[in-house]
Design brief:
- The chain is an alpha+beta fold.
- Helix 2 packs antiparallel against helix 6.
- It is built from eight helices and six strands; from the N terminus they run H-H-E-H-H-H-E-E-E-H-E-H-E-H.
- The chain has one domain: NADH Oxidase, CATH 3.40.109.
- Strand 3 (about 115) and strand 4 form a beta hairpin.
- The strands form two sheets. The protein has a four-stranded antiparallel β-sheet. Strands 3-4 form a two-stranded antiparallel sheet.
């Protein structure tokens, strides 16, 4: 048990968000398995209020990039506060999002505030954001374990995802995750994670 715990910790401590993706294809079966892992996550009342749209089609990825860059350009030039832009500066991000077309695969995650009962009526879902957040954590861990790189991307607003991907009325965009292999020259920021003492108390 202790050995498995230490091995998993070492694996996850190597995970980093990547913004430079190779065009090398990723095995669809591996992505499917990762989505199955995400679907195994706990959720409020086991309502499983999530949907995943896996996009390989280059034309659809191009439409998503165009729409995302439009929103991001407005964010960086008009919407964001100076304080927020200062926080982003060390990471080196801007409105340009080539990773959305470079990555061979995009996973759009949707949350479902409500679903349908057996008679087709609306049924409220509970603890939706908490449940979908846990599911995304499972997804990222599964993809990293398989040797794939990811980026958590949340252009704001994200309504264009619902329109482009033709999602039903009970879904809201939650996150967009490029998936693939990093380019040979890909770099990531040097990040320091908080120590155990900095994030946990044991009583």
């Amino acid at each position: 048990m202790r050995g498995r715990s230490a091995e998993f910790l070492e694996l996850m401590m190597r995970r980093r968000s990547v913004r430079h993706f190779s065009a090398e294809p990723v095995p669809q079966e591996v992505v499917e398995d990762a989505v199955r892992v995400a679907g195994s996550a706990p959720s409020g009342a086991n309502q499983q209020p999530w949907s995943f749209v896996v996009v390989f089609d280059p034309d659809v990825k191009a439409r998503i990039r165009e729409a995302a860059e439009h929103e991001e350009r407005l964010l960086y030039t008009e919407r964001a506060s100076r304080e927020y832009l200062d926080v982003l500066e060390p990471i080196g991000t801007d409105w340009s999002k080539p990773h959305l077309t470079d990555a061979p695969c995009l996973i759009a995650v949707f949350e479902q505030p409500w679903g349908f009962d057996e008679h087709g009526g609306k049924r409220k879902h509970y603890f939706v954001r908490e449940s979908v957040g846990i599911s995304v954590g499972f997804l990222l861990a599964a993809l990293h374990n398989a040797g794939l790189a990811t980026l958590t991307h949340s252009p704001s607003p994200m309504g264009f995802l619902k329109e482009i991907l033709g999602r039903p009325e009970n879904e809201r965009p939650f996150l967009l995750i490029p998936v693939g292999y990093p380019t040979p020259d890909a770099t990531t920021p040097t990040l320091v994670k908080k120590s155990l003492a900095g994030i946990a108390d044991f009583v």
